[in-house]
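Good morning C.,

I know you're traveling, so I'll keep this short. The sequence:
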Amino acid sequence: MRQFRRRKGPLTKNSFLTMSSVAAIVAVSFAVSAPVRAADDAVIQKWIAEFQPSTLSKEDQKKELEWFAKAAEPFKGMEINVVSETITTHEYESQTLAKAFSELTGIKLKHDLIQEGDVVEKLQTQMQSGKNVYDGWINDSDLIGTHFRYGQTVVLSDYMAGEGKDVTDPMLDVNDFIGKSFTTGPDGKLYQLPDQQFANLYWFRYDWFTNPDYKAKFKAKYGYELGVPVNWSAYEDIAEFFTNDIKEINGVKVYGHMDYGKKDPSLGWRFTDAWLSMAGNGDKGIPNGLPVDEWGIRMEGCRPVGSSVERGGDTNGPAAVYSITKYLEWLKKYAPPQAQGMTFSEAGPVPAQGNIAQQMFWYTAFTADMVKPGIAVMNADGTPKWRMAPSPHGSYWKEGMKLGYQDAGSVTLLKSTPADRRKAAWLYLQFIISKSVSLKKSHVGLTFIRESDIWDKSFTERAPKLGGLIEFYRSPARVQWTPTGNNVPDYPKLAQLWWQNIGDASSGAKTPQQAMDALAAAQDSVMERLEKSGVQGACGPKLHKKESAEFWFAKAQKDGTIAPQRKLANEKPKGETVDYDTLIKSWPATPPKRAEAK
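The tokens, ready to paste straight into the viewer:
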């Protein structure tokens, strides 16, 4: 773990998600040799067999793969380099899909797997130097604000209609991507396309929550049913109940909450991944609040104008401070004592050990590890003892706000890549998100990007063994879980400020208010430097002058917006829960017509 903290570049969560399965912290690359001829029918048929199940018929798969082979003919024999972080989905791409692409097209494809922080660092290097480091990139859509403002990224919607039209898959079906809105800039143009997605949800022990004895005891104490918490008050009551009332199950000490608190880079995304929005920070708006987003950054048009309350932001407002206060309180009272000294990667496996009742901040990327046969949270028949459900919201939250985070690792092209290499890379990047392969890839990594894959019958059949993952992705609630948006003008520079400042609150060096004041001031300082440099042009930051907090509270009320909100007199309203099975049944059982296609 020390070697991660020594490095200079920003660290992000996905490099930690698979640390347990990565033996060496070095770049892993798969160089694929390829014939320098277009694929013959035998090669196509071999890969069609691999890419089952598919939402396409085998005849349509053949048509799509034949198109890739033909479109790639001008680039046969070229060696193309693409990079992504290391998660299960990308491992499948680098080991299987890169090989398939090379055999089908004659392009020698090398797909590197490195830490996510290194992906961002190398991306910055290419953007700043203009030298071609990689021909194609898979990086988080959290950088959409960065890509939009610096002008170094190829606008895909323009590229597909213009320069890259001859190498754009006619069967790509852009409107089938569920995260298209995440990769769209303020100008309405598409800068990236999702390659994998996973959400941050609520996880709980379904077997304990449906236990008649526990249900009766909870109802007697709190006056409402033990169930999926709708608000943070209920989450807190449930945490208290299992930690201090139930105490032990089958002779094992149990806890009503799990989290982590070590001052470490992984603490940063614990909060930038929408913890403040869950509490009720910012304004209404999907995918991100406007005029103030979940980072507390206020916008005027496409310009960020401040994150501190005195500039109209909400990073250090009452809702944000409440979110940090509750995080610290629950960590101390209801999580295992060792959790306070854990990092993200150390805390991640703990719920699978069987003594945690619930966890509000839980990534669906853990699903594959949580359904392994024989572990403490699995039944003998292969079904889980646990479920995942929509996250509860804090007391400042209002209907219409985002409710959590969704990661969207997305394919990206840079203008500094030579035109022919960019075209060849674009072919590969489309191939790994094409309908011919995406359903199989979804079964391997459980990171959905297409509506058609989510609603495929193969996932209807598999759903009972995935603990609610399929039900969530088929639900109307899904759209409230979104990545960092356009408001954040320079994700790499701003994201690293979070763990440093909130870590001071976690360690006890500062109060929640002091920590958030320092974070807001630091964000404003970075944006002020960007403003002075003028490097981001007409959509770069232009900070508001400082006013009193009361000025901004009154302005929000006058304008009919929300952020920043005044401190509530009562931050713990009555708990509210919903029965999990009732919740699931209330969601539609048939796919919508072109959901999110607008």
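Safe travels,
E.
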